Amino acid sequence: MRFLRGISLFVVIILFALATLLHGQVSDPAVVKIESGSLRGVAKNGVVSWKGIPYAAPPVGKLRWRVPQPPVVWSGVRDANQFGPACMQTDDVQKSEDCLFLNVWRPFSPSQSPLPVMVWIHGGAMVHGSSTMYPGDALAAQGVIVVSMNYRMGRLGFFAHPALAAESPEDVRGNYGYMDQLAVMKWVQRNIAAFGGDPKQVTIFGESAGGGSVLAHLVSPMSRGLFQRAIMQSPGTPGPRAKVIPSTELAAAEKMAVDWAHSVGITGEGAAALEQLRALPTSKLLEGTSGPDTIAALSAGKVPAGMAMSIVDGRFLPEPIEAALEAGRIAPVATIIGANDRDLGIGSAGSKDELFALFGSNSPEARRLYDPRGDQTLDELKQQVFADRTMSEPMRHFARLMAHSGHPVWLYRFAYVSESQRGKLMGTVHGFEVPFTLDVPAALVGDKVTPTDRIMANVTSAYWAQFGKTGDPNGGARPMWPPYDPDVDRLIHFTNSGIIVGTDPLKSRLDLWEQVWSQPHQ
């Protein structure tokens, strides 16, 4: 009898093992089932990742310049272990017009309750960049799910030829890149629970044009309810100040598209013209979207020929960004916003006189604040003046509008420079805070990362992750970061000497810019 009981136990074990093999996808944490099929990810260093997930049909052929369509359903288990190609751009990267892919990172250990979700939108002036540049594993390891995406850019992402209106009058006009981002946010609502995520706790965040995209979603009625928190890192294209980085009216966007089509020999505004436009090779569509002339245009606050960014199309963007902000027509969510101390400046000046003429009647005060001894170089003055004009003051302007509307907002300035770069960089340039907010400082300096760099990345990313979890960046033993109050005018300053909370050291200069913008002729 004892022998028979032993045999029975052996049989049970064998049957259990077979069941596990046959139904491994149920217990394997790297395999998930979403609406379009099953995915197998990769577990590594305490995080599971799924890369190259199609969130929409390939936007090629007749789907070029259409809002994203549902993804193709697949059978079996799809390997999700590699990033999808970047969207079309002039950079020498793996790229394709078939580029609408997203990526997901999740802590390996299962959670008893759904995890908050943080959706990253990359920057690149709406003509460069991809999700492959931004690893999400270190941030996910702090207890959140991270999602990143590719979206159409340049003339493939922002193009408002009138022939498109005739073909699909119900579609959003021109803002196809934004509609891609919106499709990802909707995908999260439908699918993130399969990864253990909470679709009711979504933070959208991004840097540069990615931060500007977050701003666009904050004011778009089409994005309402799809996220509960937002972070904008040096947002531009669009920005909070229309006089610095304006939106484009639909009529102007249409004219840009028609003029560009004429430049490549395509006339008319009907179906024949659209067929010719869709037959153009991507190399032709990329012409003039990068290079010195394009950089000069973007630096002067203009856009390359045939491109229109942040189009006021009447649906996704019913009105210009700043008008919506001023009127309080913005998603009622908690936000973080800020810029770097050597951030991007848009503008040009050939002399100090030309530079200070930007301040109008406030020119003498500007000279006193920026060049009190008259010994600053023109290049250094342009860096300070244009960074204040483009980034620092518009960020504070946004924070003030949010605070006056009763929405919690936290303002920051990032000035920490990796130890190996000190002496080479005078401050944190545009985009150099991203490795710290994502907790991957080695992405910036490789094997030269130091323990001090890692500490700053740990602390900075902890603020970001905590905000993603609760809508408040504070927690643990980190310095208390107070919500922005216009009457107190305090921010958090990430510096080489540590984290400082206090009055903005640029307050007098930003107050001056605020006066300039309040003058009707400026």
Number of strands: 16
Helix content: 25-40%
Strand order of the largest sheet: 3-4-6-8-7-9-10-13-14-15-16
- What's the number of helices? 19
Kindly identify the CATH topology of the largest domain: Rossmann fold
* Main sheet record: 11 strands, mixed
Instruction: Estimate what percentage of residues fall within beta strands.
Output: 15-25%
- Per CATH, the architecture of the largest domain is 3-Layer(aba) Sandwich
The overall average pLDDT, rounded, is: 92
**Structural classification:** alpha/beta
N- to C-terminal distance = 97 Å
Using the CA coordinates, give the radius of gyration: 25 Å
What is the 3D shape?
A: globular
- CATH level-four homologous superfamily name of the largest domain: Alpha/Beta hydrolase fold, catalytic domain
Low-confidence stretches: 1-7, 11-26
Instruction: Tell me the domain tally.
Output: 2
Feature tags:
disordered N terminus, 2 domains, eleven-stranded mixed beta sheet, Rossmann fold, three-stranded mixed beta sheet, 36% helix, 522 residues
How do you describe this structure in short?
The chain is an alpha/beta fold. The chain is 36% helix and 16% strand. Helix 15 crosses helix 19 (507-518).
Q: Would you give an account of this structure?
A:
The protein is an alpha/beta fold and 522 residues long. The strands form 3 sheets. An 11-stranded mixed β-sheet has the order 3-4-6-8-7-9-10-13-14-15-16, with helices on both faces. Strand 9, helix 7 and strand 10 form a beta-alpha-beta unit. The longest helix is centred in the C-terminal third of the chain and has 27 residues.
